[in-house]
Amino acid sequence: MNAPVRTGHEVHRLDWRDAGEVRRIEGFVAEQRASLFHSPAWLRAVEAGTGQRAAGLLSERRGVVTGWLPLTEVRSALFGKALVSSGFGVGGGICAETPEAARVLARAAETHAARGGFAGIELRGGPIPQGWDCRDDRHCGFERPLAESDEAELTAIPRKARAEVRKGLGFGHRVTIGRGPGDLAAHYACYSASVRNLGTPVFPRGLFRAMLEAFGHSSDILTVWDGETPLASVLSFYHDGAVMPFWGGGVLAARAARANERMYYELMLYARRQGMTRFDFGRSKTGSGPFAFKKNWGFAPAPLTYGAWTAPGAAPRNIDPTDAGYSRKIELWKKLPLPIANTVGPWIARGLA
Fold first, then answer.
1. Start and end of every BioF2-like acetyltransferase domain (predicted)?
2. Which SS3 state, helix, strand or coil, does residue 136 take?
């Protein structure tokens, strides 16, 4: 696709075989201080871990990059075809130097969707094009500065949540941080059990491996252990001065051991020692249990603005687990034996980008 327009911007698809062009986009993302989910490395890791194809549109003017729209081309037998910016992320959307460049990218995305038979486009952040559906009432982000010492970090947590952290510390459980096969295995054991208990299919384990490979030492796994049994584990990223606990969960025994509380507190301490200044607790569905958990930890919710375009005649894609249509399926999924959930779940979850 090559679409010159009156503004002088030219839009084309990123050629993933051209290492130099990929580096140009990585440089543009860094210059704009865009999110982790704008990085071509994120898109490639999603593709490697789930099979959902990495794509992306860039705008140029006189040979200089003026805008970038990262895209995951989602194809699912259950959830249809959609362009998502960015797949399996909580952020993304159009990153552009000017409103003109943003408009050009939006129009090019609509053309790309129509030609490829995609029913819609989802933008998780960034400017929302005129005429697209815009929502800011479904999800909130949670972020605050890290404290200057371990004790200050503990006292920064509100009293009731702080008491739970102290209980977790009292058990004296072992904590490890790493990126090896053992860390991945422990993380998958905890995370898969956690999402099954919530009634959600687990992502392919290859996605987590691909992310660690893509982001190197800007990612790791922290795990809380009871002897040789992992209780809670989280895969985190370190980006632009913030630690981002992204995929985390615990087994049923984690609740009594306050292992999740211990896990997040230990991550705060570790991140500060690595030079991070902010704790990005990620997004949560407005009014959900995780939403309340993060508020109880003293994080103020900030509404996230998402946009969507639906092709003429197509139905909007619905992957919202709180939708009434999914309630019975969720309850059934919670009852599945974990080995069955972990076998079937990744095939379904590939379409939940």
1. 160-294
2. coil
**From 29-43, 180-194, 331-345, the region with the lowest mean pLDDT:** 331-345
Phi-psi region of 303 (alpha: psi -120 to 50; beta: other; left: phi over 0): beta
Please enumerate in sequence order all residues whose Cβ is within 8 A of that of 159, keeping only pairs 6 or more positions apart, or say none. none
- On whether both 206 and 98 belong to a single domain, the answer is no
Compute CA distances 294 → 51, 143, 254, 290, 291, whole Å. 32, 9, 17, 6, 5
The set of residues, in sequence order, having a beta carbon less than 8 Å from that of 143 and lying 6+ positions away, is 242, 278, 279, 280, 281, 299, 302
In the chain, the amino acid numbered 78 is L
Are the beta carbons of 48 and 84 closer than 8 angstroms? no
Do residues 314 and 79 lie in contact, with contact meaning Cβ atoms separated by under 8 Å? no
User: Judging by beta carbons within 10 Å of its beta carbon (0-12, 13-18, 19+), is residue 310 exposed, middle or buried?
Assistant: middle
Q: What angle do CA 147, 150, 151 make, to 5 degrees?
A: 95
pLDDT at 4: 43
The Cα angle at residue 48 between residues 175 and 40, in degrees rounded to 5: 90
Residues 63 and 119 in one domain: yes
Residue 173: name the closest of 222, 244, 245, 208 by CA.
222
pLDDT tens, 5-23? Answer: 455 889 999 999 999 999 9
Instruction: Tell if the pTM clears 0.85, that is, is over it.
Output: yes
Do 206 and 235 reside in the same domain of the chain? yes
In the numeric block, which tokens belong to residue 39? 């990085």
d(C-alpha 14, C-alpha 59), whole Å = 10
- CATH number of the domain residue 179 falls in: 3.40.630.30
